[in-house]
Design brief:
The chain has 725 residues and is mainly beta. Helices cover 4% and strands 51% of the residues. The protein has an 8-stranded mixed beta sheet, with no helix packed on it.
Length: 725
């Protein structure tokens, strides 16, 4: 036992001795055998020129190296881990530049004794079009001017003296040595790093969005890359020579993305700030594996990989994506939980999804009146009619027909707006959208009734009590909420008289609007006057205009706007009757006006396939929606197509309703244009659900405080009411 122990001790001492010997040998080498040379500059000059050798793993002791130029010893004057600096000796000859360490010789390159020499290039990085300064000697020439090459690509020489050249970095130069050529001589300087941004992805997002920048010449140490989003600095998360991942800052603003390296700026494409995605609807809200889920909304990305959808925190692959719709196949097994949409790191949480067999995909139609036949499309229904329990906003409704994927029934007599619920056994499902007690009814008039003589170009408005006022040639009719029609002011014959009720005279009534006190303001077209009618029916003239006022509107602050034929929109001073034009360059007709706030209005010349916004702060008008190409395509505001606006009204929530082509009701909500009725464009007079209703030449519209819309319809000589709940 003792002998074995002594033997073990000897072994340990032997191993320690070997280790000490190895360490000492490594110390003697000083790590020189593993140093790496990457570049050197300049490669020419006179005696005394300082040459820099760059690389990695150098010893910091100047005595550790011997350097020769053409066989003549040169002095090493400084040494760091990444750089050696030597002085070219007197009396040497052009030849090999060699570095010797630990008995090993490394050939660095060649050095030429000559007057031409490049001492320094500053800056040593930058994009195309930036300028570099090359200092050195021998640049001057009386015969041939100096030429500059970056990575063998010729650069534009901006200016040159014997010791300084200013040159412009050429397009797609790439990274490489800077070379100066003068009268057959060449001098190489240090390496230049070419910077370029090739692409950024995504091109839009918001605070916290991770943006991938691809290109070249980036610093591999993240903190050495300064990325700005229109001047605001982002956080570099990952970095390599050709790729950066950057997180957009909290104060991110729309504008160009720029990269600064060593104070050299490279500008890339514009990064556009957009809000978080908006989820309008998710269908179905429950269902089995294989169900196709559709998420409708806005601010999604057309790029499939820029959208992510989670169900109960499980990432689901997408099948298609557009700005307003995402589609995916429910994989099953996710469990029940919240639907979450992430677009370029902008997160929006949606409704909860139930992972089960029973589900409602859609309601057809999704609006109507009592007795409207409704089809519920989905999965997991019972083919036994009595085993399906259906509730319209809590009201149990009998099912008429049932299959596994379809239920047919009539909306109940006590119908009200709300969700539809289906119960089968121990499972229940909620509709992805509310069924709206909504539709169209004729409030007054109609073809052949003789109630209205003419509703062409007529104004329409509503007071705080729900009474509707409509112009019919030279008369203003009042219609009660129950549909009783009386003449409020004016008579069949034209005139200019002020007075009370039917004793007053107008000459072709255009736009109408109400102020906050239920005073009615009238565009008296051929009299070129603005008239006021009190709630008691007293008519007075409050303003005059050069010709043909055709539209009226009012805002919450009590301001009154007047649209003039072919000559824009005016603001009425109610105290003096003065009219101030909004924007001296606005010469389009202001046929339809919707005030948004004290500083902005929307307006549309009659029959145009676009609507414009006008800012009273900077007198700028711009297209707000409509692509200017006739049609009936829905979608994002500026991409949607219209046939011609013939009426506009906005509710208190900011939803804009408009009549398109005199026969199709559409809306603009959350930046998306949607068709509500009669997409086919057929003229008609049918009341009922939005799916059933038809119109004939609507010429104007208004909205009450409850959100009901009223239209003056010349083709049917009727005033129709459109309600949404």
């Amino acid at each position: 036992m003792k002998i074995k122990t002594i033997f073990s001790i000897h072994i340990v001492f032997l191993l320690l001795a070997l280790g000490i010997s190895a360490c000492k040998k490594n110390e003697d080498l000083g790590g020189h055998a593993i140093f790496k040379v990457e570049s050197y500059y300049p490669n020419s000059g006179n005696a005394g020129t300082l040459v820099t050798i760059e690389g990695e793993g150098f010893d910091t002791s100047v005595s550790a190296y011997q350097v020769t130029v053409g066989g003549t010893a040169a002095e090493v004057i400084s040494a760091t881990l990444k750089k050696l600096v030597i002085r070219i000796p007197e009396g040497g000859v052009s030849g090999k530049l060699e570095l010797k360490a630990d008995g090993k010789i490394v050939e660095i390159g060649t050095y030429t004794y000559q007057d031409l020499s490049v001492a320094k290039v500053f800056p040593a990085n930058g994009p195309a079009g930036s300028q570099i300064r090359i200092s050195g000697a021998g640049f001057g020439s009386t015969e041939n001017p100096a030429q500059v090459y970056i990575n063998a690509k010729k650069a534009l020489v901006v200016s040159a003296s014997d010791t300084l050249i200013v040159a412009e970095v050429p397009e797609e130069a790439g990274s490489g040595a800077v070379m100066v050529k003068v009268e057959g001589k060449e001098a190489k300087g240090q390496q230049f790093t070419y910077q370029a941004i090739r692409a950024i992805k995504p091109l839009s997002g918001g605070s916290g969005t991770r943006v991938v920048i691809t290109g070249e010449g980036f610093e591999e140490l993240g903190q050495n890359n300064i990325v700005e989003f229109n001047g605001q600095v982002g956080v570099v998360i990952e970095a390599s020579a050709q790729r950066l991942v950057v997180q957009a800052p909290n104060e991110v603003k729309t504008g160009p993305l720029a990269l600064k390296i060593n104070n050299q700026k490279t500008t890339g494409p514009t990064f556009t700030v957009v809000g978080k995605p908006v989820i309008i609807g998710v269908t179905p809200l429950s269902g089995p594996k294989g169900s196709i889920m559709t998420i409708s909304g806005s601010l999604f990305s057309n790029e499939l990989d820029e959208n992510k959808v989670y169900i109960n925190n499980v990432l689901i692959p997408l099948e298609s994506a557009s700005e307003s719709q995402l589609k995916l196949k429910v994989p099953g097994g996710t469990g029940s939980g919240e639907v979450r949409v992430v677009v370029n790191d902008q997160v929006t949480n949606g409704p909860k999804f139930k992972d089960q067999n029973l589900g409602i995909v859609s309601l057809t139609p999704d609006n109507g009146l009592a007795g409207t036949t409704v089809t519920i499309n989905g999965t997991g229904f019972s083919t036994n009619v009595s085993e399906n329990k259906v509730f319209f906003n809590g009201v149990l409704t009998a099912v008429k027909m049932a299959t596994e994927n379809k239920l047919v029934l009539d909306a109940p007599a006590t119908l009200s707006t709300g969700l539809v619920r289906v119960v089968v056994g121990d499972q229940d499902a909620i509709s992805p959208e509310t069924f709206k007690r909504a539709g169209v009814i004729t409030l007054a008039g109609g073809a052949g009734t003789g109630v209205f003589a003419n509703l062409q170009g007529s104004g329409i408005t509503v007071d705080s009590k729900g009474n509707v006022y409509v112009g019919s040639l030279n008369r203003i009719h009042k219609i009660t909420p129950s549909g009783v029609v009386t003449t409020f002011a004016g008579a069949s014959e034209a005139g200019t008289a002020d007075g009370e009720g039917i004793s007053a005279r107008f000459n072709s009534i255009g736009g109408l609007t109400m102020d906050e006190n239920d005073n009615l303001f009238v565009a008296d077209r051929f009299n070129a006057r603005i008239r006021k009618v009190t709630p008691q029916g007293i008519v007075s003239t409050v303003g005059r205009i050069s010709f043909n006022p055709i539209a009226m509107a009012s805002d919450k602050q009590g301001n009154i706007y007047v649209g003039q034929l072919y000559n824009g929109v005016y603001l009425l001073n109610k105290a003096t009757g003065g009219l101030t034009k909004l924007g001296q360059a606005m010469y389009e007709s202001g046929d339809y006006i919707v005030p948004i706030n004290p500083n902005e209005i929307y307006y549309a010349p009659g029959g145009t396939d676009y609507m414009k916004a006008f800012s009273m702060i900077n007198n700028v008008k711009s297209t707000y929606f409509g692509n200017g190409i006739g049609g009936i395509e829905d979608g994002p505001a500026l991409k949607a197509s219209l046939r011609g606006i013939t009426g506009m009204a906005m509710n208190k929530e900011g939803v804009l309703y408009f009549m398109d082509g005199g026969r199709t009701l559409r809306k603009l909500e959350n930046g998306i244009v949607t068709t509500l009725t009669n997409a086919s464009g057929a003229f008609g007079s049918t009341d009922g659900s939005f799916q059933q209703a038809s119109f004939n030449t609507v010429t104007n519209m208004c909205i009450d405080k409850e959100g009901n819309v009223y239209v003056a319809e010349h083709g049917n000589l009727a005033v129709r009411k459109i309600f949404f709940k």
